[in-house]
């Protein structure tokens, strides 16, 4: 009963205020109203210790959305879903996943360095009946930040920068990423959706962590690179036998940092000039990849000798001669080692910033030392045969098991043989068909035993050969 009375009286007070306001709007001249609003604001702010900053969705006359508003919107997706009571669901164009942001007229609180502040979202509905070609400008959305005036300096100089930086980072993370390839002197792209991650990459955990830490440190080191006066880029050389996960690692790197991939096919780049032009079109936040660098171009001393020998063979054979002429007509690449070095660390390489350059090769010893010296290729990563730790990652990924009675046998065999993660993965694949991990593990054991026998026979044959030679 008491509640009902309270409601009625509160209702009637609000009703009277609205009525007085309507009369005031109707009968008092604009100047008087403006004056009243000005002094009432001053009066309120005298007692009200909080500062409010409004961030509008559209600024000035422009029809483009404010970057700051978008950054704040992204920033607020971090804790909107757990804090706000009414949420708006949007699908991100990039990965089709749902993104939850707080709905209009919602408020969430957050702590920054022990300071409490509040974000609220508002919308002013434009009641004008004019027809607009820019419907977005009709409803004016905004975010409002409220905090105690005592923290004014800290919030303005520090917190807002933090919000913008984080918001932009979230945007980058959620954007649709692309895989570019060069063709006819142009980059063309498809959506990059490789599922590889460092979690699914089979390698020693310590090594994996070291690489991840290195990548994350690089991505956060803009200031550091500026301070030491170096272009914000880092070179990685991935080397090892086929099937050890070099390409998979590149995909995992791009996924970890949210970068695009530019898969540069050097053999279809005509000359250094074209290489430079392609380079200037590469955006920041990207991984530039040159796979099988040893096969891409005639870049090393050893390869020159080899090609010269090959050339002699070709000269002797008319069919080969004809085929070679056709290839060199359609593929007249004149990119040189110095052109490539310029690409990696010349003046041109600095445009864009935040770039990883990754070379892969199966034969590191074939590469010209100038190409891979430290400073150019900052980190050399050997991708090797599958060890037991790497096997356990694969077993967890493919079979969803972390231990099994057959593991001890596999541990022994795997340490005595050279099997690639790709081959191990092949044996763990059929699980979907048989449904029993044991079948997969037994098939792997069989393969490992065969490999071991082959290896033993090879060693024996070599020993016999040596004995014969010494006799
Ligand atoms: N370390 C690894 N972790 C997880 N999967 C791997 C790993 N190595 C290889 N694989 C599996 O094997 C397949 C082939 O690997 P990948 O293409 O990465 O090898 P690569 O080292 O790039 O070989 P190549 O030298 O022939 O280019 C991948 O699709 C992946 O499924
Ligand atoms: Mg590869």
Automatic annotation (TrEMBL):
<feature type="domain" description="AAA+ ATPase">
    <location>
        <begin position="232"/>
        <end position="387"/>
    </location>
</feature>
<keyword id="KW-0547">Nucleotide-binding</keyword>
<dbReference type="Pfam" id="PF14363">
    <property type="entry name" value="AAA_assoc"/>
</dbReference>
<keyword id="KW-1133">Transmembrane helix</keyword>
<dbReference type="InterPro" id="IPR003959">
    <property type="entry name" value="ATPase_AAA_core"/>
</dbReference>
<keyword id="KW-0460">Magnesium</keyword>
<dbReference type="InterPro" id="IPR027417">
    <property type="entry name" value="P-loop_NTPase"/>
</dbReference>
<feature type="coiled-coil region">
    <location>
        <begin position="438"/>
        <end position="471"/>
    </location>
</feature>
<keyword id="KW-0378">Hydrolase</keyword>
<dbReference type="GO" id="GO:0006950">
    <property type="term" value="P:response to stress"/>
</dbReference>
<keyword id="KW-0067">ATP-binding</keyword>
<dbReference type="InterPro" id="IPR003960">
    <property type="entry name" value="ATPase_AAA_CS"/>
</dbReference>
<comment type="similarity">
    <text>Belongs to the AAA ATPase family. BCS1 subfamily.</text>
</comment>
<keyword id="KW-0812">Transmembrane</keyword>
<dbReference type="InterPro" id="IPR050747">
    <property type="entry name" value="Mitochondrial_chaperone_BCS1"/>
</dbReference>
<feature type="transmembrane region" description="Helical">
    <location>
        <begin position="6"/>
        <end position="24"/>
    </location>
</feature>
<keyword id="KW-0175">Coiled coil</keyword>
<dbReference type="InterPro" id="IPR025753">
    <property type="entry name" value="AAA_N_dom"/>
</dbReference>
<protein>
    <recommendedName>
        <fullName>AAA+ ATPase domain-containing protein</fullName>
    </recommendedName>
</protein>
<dbReference type="InterPro" id="IPR058017">
    <property type="entry name" value="At3g28540-like_C"/>
</dbReference>
<dbReference type="Pfam" id="PF25568">
    <property type="entry name" value="AAA_lid_At3g28540"/>
</dbReference>
<dbReference type="InterPro" id="IPR003593">
    <property type="entry name" value="AAA+_ATPase"/>
</dbReference>
<dbReference type="GO" id="GO:0016887">
    <property type="term" value="F:ATP hydrolysis activity"/>
</dbReference>
<dbReference type="Pfam" id="PF00004">
    <property type="entry name" value="AAA"/>
</dbReference>
<keyword id="KW-0472">Membrane</keyword>
<dbReference type="GO" id="GO:0005524">
    <property type="term" value="F:ATP binding"/>
</dbReference>
